[in-house]
Specification:
Blueprint: E1 2-6, H1 21-28, E2 33-37, H2 44-55, E3 61-64, H3 70-76, E4 79-82, H4 87-96, H5 99-108, E5 113-116, H6 118-121, E6 150-152, H7 169-179, E7 184-187, E8 191-196, E9 199-204, E10 209-212, E11 219-221
Parallel strand pairs: 1-5, 2-3, 2-4, 4-5, 6-7
Antiparallel strand pairs: 1-8, 7-10, 8-9, 10-11
Helix pairs in contact: 3-5
Length: 239
């Protein structure tokens, strides 16, 4: 299994996907065609063009999943890239187009999977740790299950003295753990998780990440940390 799960496609100080060109080349290997799943945003053509331009330096051809029968487009490609946007809209479309099982089957048989933002969130067992507003209602919160733990892309630290009165990101994830028992990796901007079979590592710029577990204080993770033990997780929900 080859996964690259990016917190975001545009890291601070970089153009689209520029911060990840080297790791993208490595993960994609000899893949030449990438099926891009643009359904988290409304303008599929424009989104696909942006990703096509961003991946041109990597040397792959990008085909929008919306340009044909989405399941057929994914099945014909060498790799799949699920882009970010609104996770509720994305998950609704994945079910509508029959992509949940198609992507899962292809990835489990060796197809490289690239996710960014919402596309990273859906790599976990459920979408429950998304940051997004529920603008549509998906048929299920269950997602691809390519890793057995939850991910929170765009993780934002609490700023001391901030006058915002709503829940912090940390508070929301701790509330998730009050109802569910599965680790959550909070990915700061410019970071990613890379899985190669049974090896899972944290990569990206030096921002690092935070690991949330039930009945434990959040733990700071530095870039380069081996997170392979998380692949042995047995997620438990609604407990």
């Amino acid at each position: 299994m080859r996964l690259l799960l990016l917190s975001n496609s545009i890291a601070p100080g970089y153009g689209p996907l520029e911060h990840a060109h080297a790791v993208l080349r490595d993960v994609l290997g000899d893949a030449r065609t990438v099926a891009f799943v643009p359904f988290a945003l409304a303008d599929h053509d424009d989104y696909t063009k942006t990703v096509t331009d961003a991946l041109r330096p990597v040397g792959v051809e990008v085909v929008g999943a919306h340009t044909g029968e989405p399941a057929d487009v994914v099945n014909r490609a060498d790799a799949v890239f699920v882009g970010g946007g609104n996770t509720f809209r994305l998950v609704t479309a994945l079910y509508r187009h029959g992509l949940v099982e198609v992507i899962r089957r292809r990835v489990y048989t060796g197809m490289p999977y690239i996710g960014s933002s919402a596309g990273t969130n859906v790599a976990g067992p459920t979408m429950r740790t998304t940051n997004d507003m529920p603008i549509v209602q998906p048929p299920s919160f269950d997602t691809l299950g390519l890793v057995p733990f939850q991910i929170n892309p765009h993780y934002v630290d609490t700023i001391p003295g901030d006058t915002h009165m709503g829940e912090t990101r940390e508070r929301r994830l701790l509330e998730f753990l009050e109802e569910n028992d599965t680790p959550v990796v909070g990915l700061r901007e410019g970071t990613w998780l890379r899985r190669h079979d049974d090896l899972l590592t944290l990569g990206g710029i030096e921002a690092g990440a935070r690991l949330f577990r039930r009945d434990a204080d959040p733990a700071e993770l530095s870039t380069g940390t081996d997170l392979s033990p998380l692949l042995q997780t047995t997620p438990r929900f609604d407990v």
